[in-house]
Amino acid sequence: MLPVGSVLVDFDGTACLHDVAEHLLIAFADPSWSEYDDAVDRGEIGLRTAITTQAGLIRGGLDELLAFAHEHCPMDPTFGPFVERCREAGVPVTLVSDGFGFYIGPLLSAHGIEGVDVVTNTWLDGREPRIGFGNGHGECVGCGTCKMRAVLEARPRGPVAFVGEGQTDRYGALYADVTFAKDALVGWCERDGVPYRSWDDFDDVWTSLTSDTPLPGPVAPDPCPGWLPSGA
């Protein structure tokens, strides 16, 4: 029996070995796209503003973008077996992504990974703006997909595990009962005082979850440090 009721997993750079959104921007967008990441890092704009602008800079149809993702962005080979193990233990795995979103389902299908819910942004092909935020927070517009909200909505099932690697995962890590961090998320956890467990692949996550190590519990600041109210 696992000590958590659900596992939330980032997609770009986590369940998928590559940051698909970044690869698409490099290959198909005006080079100015990176300026918006820099502006987020400086605290000048929120993640939602950045991703909206970056989506508008991409040139290419959906079929072309998906073909590129299939060719260049492999899934972590340990993710599918991890999902199966969790399913057998009665614990659902949900992907929570603040990327472009449209490639997640096709990449899962291509690798035979089924039964995973996906919480992400919506790609509006052929429309402007090209991305919608149905999984954002009701009041905050800082992020596209609110990972804090995803964690809190999962908690009625029991304690929540969160697995990630990047800046957007910071806001899930802060509210999860146990966080698995690598790469940039390690630095964010250390700055925010979030206890974390290091991981390289999902075999590491499984081994840790099936150990007797107690869950540290959430830090849960109020408000979220990414809070950006509408109209601010």
What is this entry, summarized?
The protein is an alpha/beta fold and 232 residues long. It has helices at 20-28, 33-41, 47-57, 62-72, 79-88, 104-110, 147-154, 170-173, 184-192, 202-209, and strands spanning 6-9, 93-96, 117-119, 122-123, 131-132, 160-164, 178-181, 196-198.
Write up this protein.
This protein is of the alpha/beta class. The protein has one domain (6-209): 3-Layer(aba) Sandwich (Rossmann fold). The chain is 37% helix and 12% strand. The protein has helices at 20-28, 33-41, 47-57, 62-72, 79-88, 104-110, 147-154, 170-173, 184-192, 202-209; strands at residues 6-9, 93-96, 117-119, 122-123, 131-132, 160-164, 178-181, 196-198. The strands form 2 sheets. The chain has a 6-stranded parallel beta sheet with strand order 3-2-1-6-7-8, sandwiched between helices. The chain has a two-stranded antiparallel sheet with strand order 4-5. Helix 8 (170-173) links the parallel strand 6 (160-164) and strand 7. Helix 2 packs antiparallel against helix 3 and helix 5 runs parallel beside helix 10. The longest helix is centred in the N-terminal third of the chain and has 11 residues, at 47-57. The model has no long low-confidence stretch (mean pLDDT 96).
